[in-house]
Amino acid sequence: MEPNPVIALHLGAALGALATGPVALWARLGARQRPRLHRAFGVAWVTLMLVTALSALFIRDRSLPNLAGFTPIHLLVPATLGALVLAFRHLARGNIAGHAKTMRSLYLYACVLAGAFTLLPQRLLGKLLWPTLAPLAPIFERTPAWVWALLAALVILGWLQSRDRTASLAAVSSLPVGMTLFGLWGTAGAFGRSPLLAEALVLWLLAAGLVAGLVARRPAAAWYDRATRSFELAGSWLPLALFLAIFAVRYAVAVQLALHPALAQERAFALAVAALYGACSGIFLGRAMQLWRLALRPQLAVAG
User: CA-to-CA distance for 223 and 230, rounded, in angstroms?
Assistant: First the structure.
């Protein structure tokens, strides 16, 4: 396919939906909800999804298995329209949980997964993207398979965190402990042979403690059941975003140090990386401290 005004409209609407969707979902999560923000971004997201779906009807692709230019990905058009109708039917009947679940599923499948499909080499975006990444091919080829397995595991774990769930105190503690160790491993692995390691670890600790303290002051989006010693947790996309951010930083730092080993001796680089790792770990620790506070003071089990 060659670029044309319809494809430009479709692509612009799809990118807009990809960006506005998380804001609409986030505005309805947590103890402090933002209905006006949710409504504004929700209307924008639905409008962009309608433009994306309807414009796709005028885009034909005969390079893939097709019927009159309609490929299997065109099945997303009726699926998207049907999901929107179902979501607003739930809303009209007062079924807020059903409405939210339908919208979350639609964003995941129609925006995230379908968006990933457009990056295939034979697709228009793929043809534009992959040649620009060609110089990086040797780096990707030399990346151990376990790194990509770790990324897949983080994505799955982050997706699970986006759903409402019940968890024990041990379960909610394991995630911040694991991400703390991951941050320490990243700092020690990057600067283990550098004389700046001690400074980097101190700054990591300070950043983690400061951010954890700030996050812990906010009320937790959870309910603690003293009888079962478990938490009812509201889903959040924040952990997935943090997982991807930490992984991206860890990967980028490893690549830079492999290409330019002298960076390990640069104080500004080492301390910036350590502070970033520490801040991300501090967010996880702060969220865990919110829940620990509920468990230690069960009479205040209702957060917010």
Answer: 8
**Spatial distance between the Cα atoms of 99 and 28, rounded to a whole number of angstroms:** 12
Two tokens, residue 223: 């309910």
Residues 99, 102: Cα–Cα separation, whole Å:
5
Token code pair at residue 138: 């040797």
Query: pLDDT tens-digit profile of 199-216?
Result: 888 998 999 999 999 988
Percent of the chain with pLDDT over 70: 86
Question: Among all chains, which residue has been given the structure tokens 């995941």?
Answer: 108
Within 10 Å of residue 106's Cβ, how many Cβ atoms? 23
Which residue is it, tokens 């609407």?
A: 13
The three-state secondary structure class of 230 is strand
Whole-structure pTM value = 0.56
Q: How many CB atoms lie within 10 A of CB 188?
A: 13
* Under 8 Å between Cβ of 61 and 71: yes
Structure tokens at 178: 């694991």
Q: Is the dihedral of CA 102, 106, 108, 109 positive or negative?
A: positive
Instruction: Output the CA torsion 46→52→56→62 (10° steps).
Output: -130
119 with 125: CB under 8 angstroms? yes
Question: CA triplet 3, 21, 113: central angle to 5 degrees?
Answer: 60
d(CA 209, CA 203): 10
pLDDT at 51 over 80: yes
Dmax over CA atoms of the chain, in Å, equals 65
Answer for the pair 158, 246: CB distance below 8 angstroms, yes or no.
no
How high does pLDDT run on average in the chain?
A: 81
Backbone angles phi and psi of 167, in degrees to 5? -145, 150
CA-closest candidate to residue 202, choices 193, 191, 213: 191
